[in-house]
Amino acid sequence: MTSEPNQGRTPVHVPVLRAEVLAGLLAGRDPKTLEGWIVDGTTGAGGHARVLLEACPKIQLLCTDQDPKALEIATLELKPFQERVRLRRARMSELCRVIRKERIGRLSGVLLDVGVCSLHLDHPERGFSFLEDGPLDMRMDPDRERSAADIVNNWDESDLADLFYYEGDERRARTIARRLVELRRRTPFLRTGALAEEIARAVGGAGGKTHPATKSFQALRRAVNEEGDELIAGLQAAEHWLDEGGALAVISFHSGEDRVVKRFFQEGQRADRWELESKKPKQAESNEVRDNRRARSARLRVGLRRRKGNRS
Question: Which CB contacts under 8 angstroms, 24+ apart, belong to 266-269?
Answer without folding.
Answer: 268/239, 268/303, 269/303
